[in-house]
Design a protein that fits this description.
Layout lengths: L2 E6 L5 H15 L3 E6 L5 H10 L2 E7 L7 H9 L7 E9 L11 H6 L2 E10 L21 H20 L3 E2 L4 H21 L3 E3 L9 H5 L5 E4 L2 E4 L8 H5 L5 E3 L5 H5 L22
Parallel strand pairs: 1-2, 1-3, 3-4, 4-5, 5-6
Antiparallel strand pairs: 7-10, 8-9
Helix pairs in contact: 1-5
Length: 281
């Protein structure tokens, strides 16, 4: 392996962090590597980058054992590789996703992206929705041990990739079947679940940050307030990063967040503006 180019989508920072750590680990092994948010690169530019690399990587946060719809569109739009391209596929998850990236392997292989490595990385939970009883935190110190374990796994994966060995995590039939425990219901509820956003007009300051950082341009401003459309991919970026907690879900105020702020990324230096499409002021 001489050069790898990684493309990723990250809603609230976890996949960004993993992508950057993979790049660092590969560079330590003298591999030319770089990572790019799909919000900041066109499919045409990505295609040109892939042509110049001998290996390509794709990473995304797993949502209900499924791929975010914007990332799936990106993958489908990439041109086929007539001569094949060695490929890494990885996901970030809270704890379990069944088969991780592997359910996309058939599609990717058919396009000439030979998926030789797949991996799943457990990262801090970003779901702070009021009525979902999952533990979450915005305290970076709490993530240190977990991030250290994930970094060790990244280092091992990088060694395997450079050695030329193949490694696919949870590529067995049982993992594939078990993923549908989440994937089926998630796909069924996706469309209506993405329409349950509302805004507290008294709390909103009309800063427009939610509209600027939305990865699919699903938020527009009307009379000084954000209005969600029908293209939500449930990344939670607007919800987690609203400065005044003005974004509500299913009409419920995030009372938990008043005492425990939503997840703000795995490390302090992350902010959505690092990876989202740049908007002119």
């Amino acid at each position: 392996m001489k050069k790898i180019i990684i493309f990723y989508f990250s809603g609230t920072g976890n996949t960004w962090w993993v992508s950057e750590r993979i790049v660092e680990a590969l560079k330590e092994l003298e591999v030319a590597a770089s990572a790019h948010s799909i919000e900041q690169v066109s499919v045409q530019d990505a295609s040109a980058m892939i042509a110049e690399a001998d290996t390509v990587g794709f990473g995304f946060p797993i949502y209900g054992s499924d791929v975010p719809r914007n990332f799936l569109r990106f993958l489908k739009a990439l041109p086929p590789q007539a001569n094949g391209k060695d490929t890494l596929g990885f996901v970030t998850q809270m704890a379990w996703s069944g088969d991780g990236f592997n359910f996309l392997r058939k599609m990717m292989d058919a396009k000439g992206y030979r998926v030789r490595w797949t991996a799943e990385f457990n990262m801090p939970n970003n779901v702070a929705i009021p009525f979902i009883p999952l533990p979450y935190s915005a305290e970076y110190a709490r993530f240190e041990k977990q991030l250290a374990k994930t970094q060790e796994k990244i280092a091992r994966l990088s060694q395997v990739m450079v050695s030329g060995e193949e490694q696919r995590e949870h590529a067995d039939p049982f993992s594939g079947a078990s993923a549908w425990i989440q994937r089926g219901p998630f796909r069924w509820m996706h469309n209506w679940a993405g329409k349950l956003w509302s805004v507290d007009a008294e709390a909103c300051t009309s800063c427009e940050r939610c509209a600027r950082i939305c990865p699919v341009d699903n938020i527009r401003m009307a009379d000084g307030l954000p209005v969600h459309g029908d293209a939500c991919i449930l990344c939670l970026r607007c919800f987690n990063y609203c400065p005044t907690l003005a974004i509500h879900y299913a009409g419920i105020s995030n009372r938990r967040a008043e005492k425990n702020p939503p997840f703000k990324g795995p490390v302090k230096r992350f902010k959505p503006e690092l990876i989202c499409k740049q908007h002119e002021d």
